[in-house]
Amino acid sequence: MTTDAAAIGGMGHSVKRKEDARFLRGKGRYIDDIKLPGMLYMDIVRSPYAHANIKSIDASKALALPGVLAVITGKDLDAAGLAWMPTLMSDKQMVLPVDRVVYQAQEVAAVVATERYIAADGVALVEVDYEPLPPVIDPFKALEPDAPLVRPDREAQTNHIWHWESGDKARTDQLFNEAEVTVKEHIYLPRIHVSSIETCGCVASFDKVSGKLTVYMTTQAPHAIRTVYSLVTGIQEHKIRIVSPDIGGGFGGKVPVYPGYVIASVASIQTGLPVKWIEDRSENLQADSFARDYHITAELAAKNDGTMQALRVKTLADHGAFDAAANPSKFPAGLFSIITGSYRLDAAHVEVDGVYTNKPSGGVAYRCSFRVTEAVHTIERMVDTLAQKLQRDPAAVRMQNFIQPDAFPYKSATGWEYDSGNYPAALQKAMEKIDYAGLRREQAEKRARGELMGIGISTFTEIVGAGPSHTFDILGIKMFDSCEIRVHPTGSAIVRIGVQTQGQGHETTFAQIVAEELGLPVENITVEHGDTDTAPYGLGTYASRSTPTAGAATAVAARKIRDKAKKLAGHLLEVSPDDVEWVDYHFQVKGVPGRSVTMKDIAFAAYTNFPPDLEAGLEAVDYYDPPNLTFPFGAYICVVDIDRGTGMVKIRRFVAVDDCGNIINPMIVDGQIHGGLTMGMAPALFEAITYDENGNMQQSNFMDYLLPTAMETPVWETDKTTTPSPHHPFGAKGVGESATVGAPPAIANAVVDALSHLGVTHLDIPITPWKVYQILQEHGAAES
Amino acid sequence: MIPDDFTYAAPTNLPQVWDLLRQHEGDAKILAGGQSHIPLMKLRLASPAYLIDLRNVPGLTTLAERDGSLIIGAMVTETTLERSPLVRQRYAGIYDASAVVADPIVRNFATVGGNVAHADPANDHPAMLLALRANVTLQGSRGSRTMSLDDFMVDTFETALQGDEVLSEIRVPSPPPQSGSAYIKLERKVGDYAIAAVGAAVTLENGVCSRVGIGLTNVGPKAIRATQAETFLTGKQPDDASIRETARLAADAAQPTTDLHGPADYKRAMVQTLTARVLRLAVQRATAGGGQ
Amino acid sequence: MTQHVKLTINGRPYEADVPSRLLLVHFIREVAGLTGTHIGCDTTSCGACTVLVNGTPAKSCTLFAVQTDGANISTVEGLEQGGTLHPIQEGFYEEHGLQCGFCTPGMMMTSIAFLQENPDPTDDEIRHAISGNLCRCTGYMQIVKAVQYAARKMRDEQATPNTADSSAATATEAEVIR
Is B292 part of a structural domain of the chain? Predict the structure, then answer.
């Protein structure tokens, strides 16, 4: 008996998505689709100033509006001890300010009304008397001695938050002192915003009878939120239920606890009625967590023959008014020390200083939470800068300096142990696919004619799957993840996981893992997540951690079930379990293909016909503590053409060769890479958040914050190599972030390459047409 | 984003519109497609007490050539213009402009009248229509008057509409033989306003430009007619040298400011680049015979 | 100020006294209870709220319900007919044209109207047609393929006689809200 692997829908099959059935019919249940009986609506009064004292708040006109039931201010929350809440980074942040606002669009008061439109009217009627204070906008000026204090509430009366460093300073400095060649660049990665098409929101519902608070919330990490809620409010954790419904895109922006969630919960407890709060897009852009905002100075030391030796990096990180990044506790700068990338280096030293400014808090995410994008951008730009200085081909310099396939596991200069990789193979594949040699010839011909074309390479190494409990925790909670599987008597199953999908297709891929391990067809497996009352505890989905952690837990839990099933198989086949083997998705007596039982047979037996020494049922739970992180990688090559008359950059081709280890569902992985590449292109060419000198945010809607449409997005050409992770149960590595991390330097390198003959060595992203045009003009290269 | 409350009316003829405008002077706003105005209301940057929808007023959706002019009723949508063979064949510059207004869905409701009467310097039609020497017809209880678009566009968000007047139609003089027009917009992404855009209209006689129109988008407080550039090219052959000099003069006419759409110097340079390109395209269309 | 508004949504009549300022999207979501139409940006930029108004794609967050009084509205909930998915739904499913699903209803409604105008489009024409709909997940690649899938299927259906009439369901008895 053999079972068709495709019919099972296990590993490696492009199984169509289970979740699509409801989304395609408009039957998804997103946060704003939830309507509870008697539900009230909350809207938020926000500060027009980046820094101001609140002299008074007069809510009388708002309260006089029919339909307005309450106006909640910081003083109200302060009385309940809830005006502040802890951040994930051992800082605290205001839920509502008592007397001072510290960034524009900060929550100042909340209006609760019977209808959404009335709540909005109420907001317009709340009168707040502000006394503007000088804001701190430039992070460098924030460190000057006479800078105004963003956070006088802290013991340390400074805008400096923390200093972090990694690597060997003495050895690095020594190598730089002795270096034959060094290059240096100032690289700024601007503040950007995830802008999932669905904004954030919640419906808080407090049951006065049971004392239970249920909060439906756009969160990527419901369990962590429940624990934080319990710690902050003192409500027993079993009386708190966080439900993450369908989520319209997360990308890291739905990891933090936003004040609106807390205020709505308070409002529900106060009124005894459900309270809905939904952000509009301006609130989402102005006040929610942002990503990046790293001011980096990087230096690379090398030999004249191109051998890279040492990397030295100093960074100023603008964290806004609260240090509310979503990094593991011991990593204030995330996993920035992955900055040595795919290259052998004798030494590296990396420093980051975090500072407060009068801007929204964060350092959170944009499809990469842990500062890997900043690291990859830096090293990939520096390798190109070195190649340019040595007048070498950037592909050749990469090939020369790659960590070789036989060197894994490889200990990096900053202490990471890379699990596996084959960087030359990936780059070789990308170069062949795009005809690198042919493109270089074309470029030379075009350059001779005065036309501008550039080729950019990025050979990145990612670091995902946080993480091993010895190092990784959030507020002390170790970063394991979990899975619980119950096989029903008739051979179907329910799988509950501690991570939370936001479009990644977990309902399909986690079912595929179980299908593969148990031989049950994928359509007979239901995956549930997001409800803290039913799902096992987990840290949530971000930083490409779901497959490396909860995916592993799912495989291990399934294997526990298979172990028990083997005993049941022996019982049914009337042989010792030792004489039973797992072949082609079923158990058979060793060497006797005719004598076999399926998992369906076994499931029935587990409830109807089990041996006396086995307990009934077929269930397992696993809390998986990964032994190491995983290190996906890839080789991207981008070709751009530049319009000499306008400075406009057009991506002509983009080849992406990704290696994320073994793949569960190729269709979904391809989709993740397409989306990731687009979110990599967006900050490279379009998106950035900027502030004027008064701290006014300048991109407060989608008319000013430029998300690419289908017209600006090129046709992505994807391919893969497969280097399994040696420590992951099924050799997977995670893929969600890779393309967003890897794409920006490929694009930036392509533009710099197109302009390199003019002496250009670096351009900060986003690469606007006017930045390019100015260079062309300065060098007489613009079309006149 | 929730707009302020207002009273809505959808009158069925222009006299009713005039009555409402008079009754609620200063508090009333005409609603055409609403694709610019409704977002402003949702942001509460505009809160009119009365909204007078023109959708039931007959006679505002004409799109036809008549008496030597193309008549574009104020309520003609961008999509209608974009799909009109008449516009595409004989008024290619208007087609170009309608095809780059906002995005394809917005264009289904956005109207040409709204685009012009909103008087946003970033809107695409005014510059092209200036180049084509369009006139506008204003109708009010005191009668109807026609004026050049030049005179109609007063300042940012300000037009020559008086009292109870409504912009009812736009008239574009039909092009003589050997005419061509074109509009080129430089935008970073679909749906964005122009960094700069230029519309040009050219008529050739014996290889010489007998009539030249050049209009500039989003490089000043309102759409700008580059009159010196027009004058320079008029009577000249549209060769490389004359086009370059015309483009330089057009750039001189721009009054850009630095904003999110780029530094002022860059925008001025773009007017030069785009003017040269759009003139070449207009001349090419004029020379191509049928294409105008 | 309230106004009486009658709309036909997916062939079914709805009427209610609503505030003049009620946005069409809120009529659809809150009055008719059809939550498949989403709100993403509030400024006519993202297209998540796209529905068909008398067959024409419209961003329903930028129209007041009163402006569409009397109109025929089509939303995602009306696409499936008699238990059979519309070709565009099938295309999005088969080609992995969606991830989080939030932009998907608007994207499908735009595509349906487009395919009626242009039954045999190029990829570039599809990209142009959906350029008023933002997607943050897919990078648009599979959406283009999904629309091509639907185009093929719709052409095949056109070519084959005796296929089921795919026009909107006939109106059932009037339902008065409030």
Answer: no
C38: chain A residues, CB-CB within 8 Å: 30, 32, 197-198, 248
Gyration radius of chain B over CA positions: 19
Taking an 8 Å cut-off on Cβ atoms, the answer to whether A711 and B260 are in contact is no
- Distance separating alpha carbons of residues C93 and C89, to the nearest angstrom: 6
- The ranges assigned to domains in chain A are 5-27+481-624, 34-133+198-248+254-287, 294-413+421-466+628-778
> Quick check: is C62 in a domain?
yes
Domain end call among C27, C47, C78: C78
Q: How far is CA B153 from CA B31, B96, B249, in A?
A: 19, 21, 22
Structural fold of domain A34-133+198-248+254-287? Aldehyde Oxidoreductase; domain 3 (3.90.1170)
Confidence label for C141 from pLDDT (cuts 50, 70 and 90):
very high
Residues C6, C69: one domain? yes
Interface test with A, best of C2, C30, C102 (most A CBs within 10 A): C102
The answer to whether residues B166 and B183 belong to one domain is: no
Give residue-wise pLDDT tens across range A253-293. 999 999 999 999 999 999 999 999 999 999 999 999 899 99
Q: Is residue C169 part of a domain?
A: no
Q: Please, what CATH class does the domain formed by A5-27+481-624 belong to?
A: alpha beta
Min Cα distance B217 → chain A (Å) is 16
- Give pLDDT, residue C30: 97
Residues 254-293 of A with CB under 8 A from C: 280-282
Counting the structural domains of chain C, the total is 2
- The mean per-residue pLDDT over the stretch B233-255 comes to 98
pLDDT digits (tens, 9 = 90+) for A203-233: 999 999 999 999 999 999 999 999 999 988 8
Residues C10 and C44 grouped into a single domain:
yes
CATH topology of domain A294-413+421-466+628-778: Aldehyde Oxidoreductase; domain 4 (3.30.365)
Chain A CB within 8 Å of residue C43 CB = yes
Residues 13-42 of chain B with CB under 8 A from chain C are 31, 34-35, 38-39, 41-42
ipTM entry: 0.97
The catalytic residues of A are: 220, 367-368, 737
- Kindly indicate the confidence band of residue A89, based on its pLDDT and cuts at 50, 70 and 90: confident
A194 neighbourhood in chain C, CB within 8 Å: 136
**B237 and chain C: CB distance < 8 Å anywhere?**
no
The CATH number for B218's domain is 3.30.390.50
pLDDT for residue C166 is more than 50: no
On whether both C66 and C123 belong to a single domain, the answer is no
Chain B contact partners (≥3 CB pairs within 8 A): A, C
Domain enclosing residue B22, as ranges: 7-53
Contact A712 B190 (CB under 8 A): yes
Distance CA C38, CA A597 (A): 49
Last residue of a domain, one of C16, C48, C78: C78
Does the pLDDT of residue C164 top 70, yes or no? no
Same domain, B24 and B116: no
Q: What total number of domains does chain B contain?
A: 3
Chain B interface, best mutation among C1, C41, C61, C103, by max B CB count within 10 A: C1
Chain B residue with Cα closest to A688: B260
- In a domain, residue B274? The reply is yes
Tell if the CB–CB gap between A675 and C136 is shorter than 8 Å: yes
- pLDDT bucket at B289, cuts 50 / 70 / 90: low
Question: Range of C12's domain?
Answer: 2-78
Tell me the residue ranges of DSSP E strands in A517-648.
525-528, 580-583, 586-589, 592-597, 619-624, 633-642
Mean pLDDT of A549-575: 97
- The kind and range of the H/E element at B275 are helix B264-287
Mutate to test the interface with A, among B266, B268, B271 (most CBs of A within 10 A): B266
Strands B143-148 and A181-189, bridge-based pairing: unpaired
Chains contacting chain A through 3 or more C-beta pairs under 8 A? B, C
**Residue A47: closest CA among A106, A87, A2, A128:** A106
| A124–B1 C-beta distance less than 8 A | no
CB-count exposure of residue A263 (10 Å: 0-12, 13-18, 19+): buried
Size of interface A-B (CB pairs under 8 A): 63
The C-alpha torsion from B203 through B205 and B208 to B213, rounded to 10°, is: -20
Is the pLDDT confidence value at C174 over 80?
A: no
Helix (H, G, I), strand (E, B) or coil at A732: strand
Quickly tell me which residue has 């986690």 as its tokens.
A510
